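#lab-general

N.A. 3:47 PM
ok so I finally got the sequence cleaned up, no stray characters, all 245 residues accounted for. can someone with queue access submit it? mine expired

B.Y. 3:52 PM
send it over

N.A. 3:53 PM
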Amino acid sequence: MMIGRDWKAEFEGRTAWIRGLVESSGVRGIIFGNSGGKDSALTGILCKAACENTVGVIMPCASRRNYGEDADDGRALAEQFGIETRTVDLTGVREAELAALRGITEVSDLALANIAPRLRMTTLYTIAAAEGRLVAGTGNRSEAYMGYFTKWGDGACDFNPIADLTATEVLDFLRWLGAPKSIIEKAPSAGLFDGQTDEKEMGVTYRAIDEYLTEGTASDRDLAIIERYHRRSEHKRRPIPVYTP
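B.Y. 4:20 PM
back already:
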């Protein structure tokens, strides 16, 4: 935890910023994906504190964890902080997409894993457009540096109140806020498939990533992994290339 970090001031500053965005945009509320994870929990808490009309959507898609632990944690967060919650089951939609692609192309494991995040963002933007809401982003600084997000999936949003925070800082903030223990203690996971965890998939811990981002230090092994991920994902952070005559 950063020594002397004033989380009360952080909370007040971020909620005031969100409130200003809602007012200047002329929308009626906010919507976010309530995945049951740390990042979405912090985003949801901040948005609810800034805007009473905040809705979290639980969107299980194929993974058993989505229907169990993740959904339970999402509901626990919503109950504790008074966040309106809706559930949209996307497993059937995913199956329909795969059926439509059958015979058109062979879907790789990576392409398959990215379907769920994009279906979830489609769902959020559809509800947002129907109800006059802004879509809140839930990605942190650590994930952004590693490129550990789906382009046009969880990487898409209208605003992001936690993008400058590392994964470690998100955890510290949640502890200060008194978020559900189950969310604070569970291993970070995108929930893309059963048994998946972020750190196991990347091969490096968030603590190592955050130490590199904040202190500039890392073991040779960790640095090689971090820089490889960052280099290969550069296209995700760049603006869309456009032709300029």
